[in-house]
Design brief:
The chain is an alpha/beta fold. The chain has 14 helices and 20 strands. The model has no long low-confidence stretch (mean pLDDT about 95). Bound molecules: flavin-adenine dinucleotide. The site of flavin-adenine dinucleotide has 38 residues, from helix 1, strand 19 and helix 14.
């Protein structure tokens, strides 16, 4: 049992994983110090200011979407005082996919008036844009997945799995591939079927609202890091920004943690950085070499977000639309979502030819694609491309994922890459942070 009066936990990394560890420990009265290398907290889920015509617009480093199944994230936000209705637009599952090039659409919606899971069955059966036999094959697959509790004995690339399960090219292109890119940020030819099915399980096999989309109505820092920091500061936690940790040394009864200019001692340490930053911290921790070797082998996938500002009266038919056969994959109307009238956020997940374009060329291409899909759109007034080149680890077949415990007692690993059930997501990061806090508290 932890001695609350003597324990002092260092948490290294102020992303969702570190913030969730700190909150869970602070709630139990454990002294914590949170080190963040950058000036801001939130890590890969944060807001940024963009300047145009001496005005600053707050946007996110990438348009994020949460699912109703993100229970731990929603509980964490509730704990720190975030009111869901003010923070998110909750939309029952609805996919509106458009292929302007081939003049095709797919529309999938779960009718709200039907009880769960009938609403899902009805949604798939009535999916517009797929033939009767394609819809039948999709429903058959969903039944099969339920029967096997969404668990596979052997992992394989998602595309193989879908083809083996009689999903047509059309169903893959309009339904499964966009979902795979949105959930795993990994090309469907490489993506882990096991991890994808875990996300499907949580979205479709739980309560009626677990498949809801929750789209932020405020910028991410207002929803996540600001309220969590406020909570931590009122719970006697120390939060330090611009404090990059350079080394961690095991010492008697704990660890010495060093930044460039200071040394601190702690009883416990949680390393909550992204996987690719782990190596920077483990030089004096040789028993972690095998973990560093594992994570050094990870490949990473980018996410590009192209913000296009149109005149303020411009809107799209839906707040969120999927685009097929184009460079642009999803478009979000931030006027409808968060009151930023005329601002569209276009998301492009995973590696692709778009990475070869300059940012201006990419913005022009995306603006042309939007104009083709929605001819009422004029030329944008300005654009900004945010390229997160290593947005997430590539969630591939049988990817080894380290555990939260390490060979060093009282040293733990948190971060989206340690929560093996999920791809790199907010919920994975939050759950990993909670797991570390529970290991410390037990
Ligand atoms: C563009 C984009 C879009 C995304 N969209 C979605 C989405 O729609 N839905 C979803 O669920 N997820 C999405 N994700 C993924 C999600 O944002 C991440 O999985 C999650 O935020 C990871 O949190 P983390 O705490 O594990 O890591 P991080 O957020 O990377 O946090 C690690 C922190 O550690 C700090 N750090 C590193 N080294 C040190 C050091 N030596 N000392 C001190 N601090 C250090 C870093 O500065 C960083 O703040 C998206 C990610 C990106 C980039």
């Amino acid at each position: 049992m932890i001695n609350k009066n003597k324990a002092h936990v260092a948490i290294i990394g102020g992303g969702l994983a570190g913030l969730s560890t700190a909150t869970a420990l602070a709630e139990q009265g454990i002294q914590t110090t949170l080190f963040e290398a950058g000036p801001h907290f939130g890590g890969r889920a944060r807001s940024v200011g963009i300047e145009f015509n001496s005005q600053t617009f707050q946007v996110d480093n990438g348009q994020h979407i949460l699912l109703g199944a993100y229970h731990e994230t929603l509980k964490l936000l509730e704990k720190v005082g975030v009111q869901e209705k003010q923070a998110f637009l909750r939309l029952p599952l609805a996919l509106n996919m458009i292929s302007p090039r081939n003049n095709k659409v797919l529309k999938l919606a779960n009718p709200n008036y039907l009880p769960h899971p009938l609403n899902q069955l009805f949604g798939f059966l009535c999916c517009q844009g797929l033939s009767l036999s394609e819809r039948f094959a999709t429903v058959t697959l969903m039944f099969k997945l339920k029967k096997i509790s969404y668990r596979l004995t052997a992992d394989e690339p998602l595309k193989n799995f879908l083809l083996k399960n009689k999903q047509s090219n059309q169903a893959i292109k309009f339904l499964w591939e966009p979902l795979c890119l949105a959930a795993l940020n990994t090309p469907i030819e490489l993506a882990s079927s096991k991890v994808f099915l875990n996300v499907l399980r949580d979205a479709f096999n739980g309560g009626k609202t677990d498949s809801d989309f929750l789209i932020p109505k405020l910028d991410l820092s207002q929803i996540i890091s600001t309220p969590i920091l406020r909570y931590l500061q009122t719970h006697q936690s120390t939060v330090l920004s611009n404090k990059r940790v350079h080394s961690i040394q095991p010492i008697e009864n704990g660890f010495e943690v060093a930044t460039r200019s200071e040394k601190y001692t702690f009883s416990h340490v949680v390393i909550a950085t992204a996987a690719r930053k782990l190596k920077d911290l483990t030089a004096d921790l040789p028993k972690l070499d095998f973990v560093t070797l594992q994570t050094e082998a990870y490949d990473y996938q980018p996410i590009y977000t192209v913000y296009l500002q149109y005149p303020s009266h411009i809107t799209l038919p839906q707040p969120m639309l999927g685009l097929v056969d184009l460079t642009s994959q999803w478009v979000f109307d931030r006027g409808q979502l968060c009151g930023q009238q005329g601002l569209m956020a276009v998301v492009i997940s995973a590696k692709g030819k778009h990475q070869k374009l300059t940012q201006d060329m990419l913005a022009l291409k995306v603006a042309q694609e939007l104009h083709h899909a929605f001819p009422h759109l004029p030329k944008p007034l300005w654009h900004k491309v945010i390229a997160e080149k290593c947005a997430t680890f590539s969630c591939e077949v049988n990817l080894p994922r380290p555990a939260n415990v390490t060979p060093y007692p009282n040293l733990f690993l948190a971060g989206d890459y340690t929560y093996a059930d999920y791809p790199a997501t907010i919920e994975g990061a939050v759950r990993s942070g909670l797991a570390c806090a529970n290991l410390i508290l037990k």
